[in-house]
Amino acid sequence: MSALQIKKGSSKHSAYDLRSHMSDVMERHTLAVLVDNESGVLARVIGLFSGRGYNIDSLTVAEVDHQGHRSRITIVTTGTPQVIEQIKAQLGRMVPVHDVHDLTVEGQAVERELALLKVAGTGEKRVEALRLADIFRAKVVDTSLESFVFEITGTSEKVDALADLMRPLGLVEIARTGVAALSRGAA
């Protein structure tokens, strides 16, 4: 049988199937985007994502250069490698964008997120919430006779893990900052 013939019912792909080399695997990427700090820039960046059906898992933005009036937008998104490349290319073409870095592919990066968790409970649940907070190195930043507010800093996975454990103990509310990230090393 030649390489171009395919048996009926076979799951083999044709040698001419161009999609076979493309990855359908979804990847999580952290992008750092340096932009002009002017009105409408964030809306344009978000519009790029929403207009093409891309999802933003986390978004943080703050001015990082007061004299140069520049802000850094940190975006965590998920997509196939082709979609991630398309996002980076489209961001790079926007006029107020000065720089786009994919921290996921440029080497090791440090990522942190801050979250506040309000946990309501009494008795054993209250004691267990304090014990778990201690294990995760979360700080008590507010307390009453019926509730605690814990502050936790760490990876998104660490925040998720603590929230999952606090749910059965009375997690009432959670507020998260989103991911802040920097590449490691001198450059």
UniProtKB/TrEMBL annotation:
Family note: Belongs to the acetolactate synthase small subunit family.
Catalytic activity line of the entry: 2 pyruvate + H(+) = (2S)-2-acetolactate + CO2
Pfam families: ACT_AHAS_ss (PF22629), ALS_ss_C (PF10369)
Function: Catalyzes the conversion of 2 pyruvate molecules into acetolactate in the first common step of the biosynthetic pathway of the branched-amino acids such as leucine, isoleucine, and valine.
CDD domains, per database record: ACT_AHAS (cd04878)
Signal peptide positions (record): none
Listed GO CC annotations: cytosol
Highest taxon listed in the record's lineage: Bacteria
Organism: Mangrovicoccus algicola
Family matches, as SUPFAM superfamilies: ACT-like (SSF55021)
GO MF entry, a single one: acetolactate synthase activity
EC number(s) on file: 2.2.1.6
Name the UniProt record assigns to this protein: Acetolactate synthase small subunit
GO biological process: isoleucine biosynthetic process; L-valine biosynthetic process
Record-annotated ACT domain positions: 30-105
Subunit structure: Dimer of large and small chains.
Sorted UniProt keywords: Amino-acid biosynthesis, Branched-chain amino acid biosynthesis, Transferase
Pathway: Amino-acid biosynthesis; L-isoleucine biosynthesis; L-isoleucine from 2-oxobutanoate: step 1/4; Amino-acid biosynthesis; L-valine biosynthesis; L-valine from pyruvate: step 1/4
Gene from which this protein is expressed: ilvN
